[in-house]
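Good morning,

Attaching, inline, the backbone tokens for the sequence recovery test we're adding to the shared suite. The designed sequence is right after.
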């Protein structure tokens, strides 16, 4: 069964394919975003808002979200807990 997670503004990603959820502030993450953009593997789900979370997928895709990393991770955790019951 595919588990999906809301990453903001009605956008959804596959929870099982997420490698990490990080803040976009550091220089290595900014380089990762640039590389993904150059390789056409960047998904911008911010709707023009400020990027607050960078989601790295196992397919080398990078998703930009305007939702805080903590919020995305809490949604992921709460989905896991609700599936266990």
């Amino acid at each position: 069964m595919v588990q999906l997670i809301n990453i903001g503004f009605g956008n959804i990603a596959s929870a099982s394919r997420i490698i990490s959820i990080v803040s976009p502030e550091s220089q290595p993450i900014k380089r990762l975003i640039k590389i993904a953009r150059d390789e056409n593997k960047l998904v911008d789900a911010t709707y023009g808002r400020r990027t607050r979370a960078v989601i790295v997928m196992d397919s080398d895709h990078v998703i930009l979200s305007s939702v805080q990393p903590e919020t995305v991770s809490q949604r992921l955790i709460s989905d896991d807990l609700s599936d266990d019951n």
